[in-house]
Amino acid sequence: AGSLGIDLETAVGVILIHNRPQKIPTTFKSPVHSSKHDVGALLLGCSSAGLKGILVIPGLIDADYTRVIPIVVYTLHLPLFIPQASKIAQIISFQNLVSAMMKGSKPMRPMRRDTSFGSTRPVAYLTLRMHDRPVQKITIINGKEQINIQALLDTGEDITTIS
């Protein structure tokens, strides 16, 4: 009940004989959640895997991905055997915020379905709709003039933006 993620088990035993990344199939098939393709997941290595010398490369699983989820691993301690049914990674599910923002509109990219490893389109979403904004009451003073406002603040390294 207290676990944040879902453990992934390796479907086969693997011997790592080089230090290049290698895909290992798991026993878990996507989609992560069946709520109309609005839940994706972040794949992360378990800390116990790192202690055994297994380095898991983090990855994102799209909400519309429909195949067995592989784990990409490598090691610096060769050779290394990973037995079948090893729990070396976990996935942490999260709501696809871009999908939630675009509900009812035409899909912006093709569905991933059974393809993997790669971008479906060169698009980046750098802003999201915020329901609870970091607003602060501030007073701006210029000489003898002053104004009190509720402001959305964004502090940068050498500049502050007030909206």
Description:
The protein folds into 2 domains: 6-101, Distorted Sandwich (Deoxyuridine 5'-Triphosphate Nucleotidohydrolase, Chain A); 130-163, no CATH class. The protein has helices spanning 47-51, 97-101, and strands at 6-9, 14-16, 22-29, 39-45, 55-56, 59-61, 68-74, 80-82, 87-95, 135-142, 145-155, 160-162. It is elongated. The protein is mainly β. The strands form 4 sheets. The protein has a 4-stranded antiparallel β-sheet with strand order 1-9-4-6. It comes from Poecile atricapillus. One of its GO terms (biological process) is proteolysis. This is POK9 protein. GO terms for molecular function: aspartic-type endopeptidase activity. Residues 149-163 form the Peptidase A2 domain.
What is the overall number of helices? Answer: 2
Beta-strand proportion: 35-45%
Uncertain segments of ≥5 residues (pLDDT<50)?
Answer: none
Radius of gyration: 22 Å
Which percent range fits the helix content? Answer: under 10%
Which structural class is indicated by helix and strand composition?
mainly beta
What is the tally of beta strands?
A: 12
Give the SSE order as H and E letters.
EEEEHEEEEEHEEE
Mean pLDDT: 80
- Name the CATH homologous superfamily of the largest domain: Deoxyuridine triphosphatase (dUTPase)
The CATH architecture category of the largest domain equals: Distorted Sandwich
Whole-number tally of structural domains: 2
Cα separation of the termini: 42 Å
